Amino acid sequence: MRIEAGSAFTRAAARFGDRLAVIDTLGSRRTYRQLQDRANSAGSGLMASGVKRGDRVGVLSHNRIEVVEVWLGLERFGLVRVVLHSHFEISTHVKTLNEVGASTLVFHEAFASEVAAAREELATVERYVCIGESCPEWAVPYSSVIGKGDVANPCLDVEEDEPCFLQLTTGTTGHPKPWIHTHRSWRGVIENNIEHLDSFGRGSAAVGPDDVNLHFHALQWATGFQTLMPYLLRGALSVVADDSVFDPAVLLQQMIDHRVTGMLIPAPMLEPVLDLIERDEITLPNLRKLVIFFATAELLQRVSRLLGDCWCHGYGSSEQGAPVTRLLFDDLDSEDTWGSIGRPSSSFTEVRVVSVDGEPLGPGEVGEIVVRTPMAAAGYWGLPEKTSAAFFPGGWFRAGDVGSMDADGRVHYLDRAKDMIQTEVGVVYPHVVEARILAHGSVAHCGVTGVRTEVDGPAQVIAAVVLKEETDDREAVRVSILELAADAPEYERPKQVIIVDELPTVLGGAKVQREVLAHLLVAAGTGVSV
């Protein structure tokens, strides 16, 4: 089946024309008509510069309005966007661009020195396009590409299973893997997220022109993947905020100034914002749809207390592109419910918990969480063996997560299968231990991992903890964390709690790299091996 690439936004631009579509915190703004014209100019300008249909084009920039233009333009002209996360090291980008055979790299001037140093290693990149006023001589200014382009809609028909873009996994368990999103699966992602946002719990209205969606976290991750298009297609305003440095006070002020109604936020970044809200007794009356990832029950209860009924706790993966399950603020009927990740988020999604052989398990039985959805129907670029291993028969995608499902159909997440700690007594799920520690009022972030303290001994549970800035007596807090953990089964209690200044993370602090943490702890003298 053939479909017109990017036609959903073409219809939105025709409908909302001169209505403001996107602004960024650097002062740029575009109406729907202007955004369409710029996207068409970017796509056709790249084609005029020698980029061919089907070429892979890397995009490396912090959040700014040009990123949205380029993303839309690439899709509309059949160019395959390679999503490069702005918080990864340049060596990661080099490896990714070489793996996918990218012909072109569009980058912001802030990355010019890193790109310059890596050019000899970029085996397939033939052209460089620089966004910004300080374009190096070896690159073409983005403004020149726009000048070569044409504002006319391309009306390009593509096969629905052609690659639309490559979404990189988060890299928490190794080098990020490029997942292919076809034009068909991308439409599935958008429709799933529209249904998810339109059915956001009791009393919540559908997304519409009165909404304001804030993107403070890197567009390359979930915020651009999940919420950008649903709000754009409904005539809402998207605010694109610079994500180079996270400052909770700046974020809170942006939410107030722009009267934000919707936002996606990782839980580790939400906690310091809630601290400010509680300290200064701030209210956010416009906020209606707060999508949270990686939350604990205690954090969700705090959100309800401070912000009211405006949240959902989502669970998903880069391969799916949307929350596949969600816990809504109005789907709570017991204390245990707060700790779940809810039920399937839309009619597009099926979820099971299965055995190692892929057989469905009964309520409460721990197994692998698998998902079947049109959003994850392709595979990893150039990695056929990993693609094959990522599916059980019948199209069930294996995200590598462990959990259970209760009799009411709610999923309870335990952890990544690769992160389980095999102790002398039994299996420990780091996520469970971290949730317990994060309930401590002085803890800003924590990571739990397994380290061997004897050469032939079993792994020991070690917790590394970042404290909130106002904490004075670090040793007293460390002791109190151990006391808090004493309520857990003995084998789940950390053998050591180590106070650290920072944790190894990805996605701008959203997720802890537990394997990296284990090696850092060993290098610092905690234990002898991983």
TrEMBL record:
Report whether Protein biosynthesis shows up as a keyword of the record.
Answer: no
| GO molecular function terms noted in the UniProt entry | acid-thiol ligase activity
| Domain named AMP-binding enzyme C-terminal: residues | 433-504
Q: Which Pfam families does UniProt cross-reference here?
A: AMP-binding, AMP-binding_C
UniProt keywords (A-Z) are: Ligase
Cleaved signal peptide residues: none
Keyword Ion transport assigned: no
Q: Which residues form the AMP-dependent synthetase/ligase domain?
A: 9-381
What SUPFAM superfamilies does UniProt report for this protein, alphabetically?
Answer: Acetyl-CoA synthetase-like (SSF56801)
InterPro entries linked to this entry = AMP-bd_C, AMP-bd_C_sf, AMP-binding_CS, AMP-dep_synth/lig_dom, ANL_N_sf, ATP-dep_AMP-bd_enzyme
Which named protein is this? Acyl--CoA ligase
Species annotation: Gordonia desulfuricans
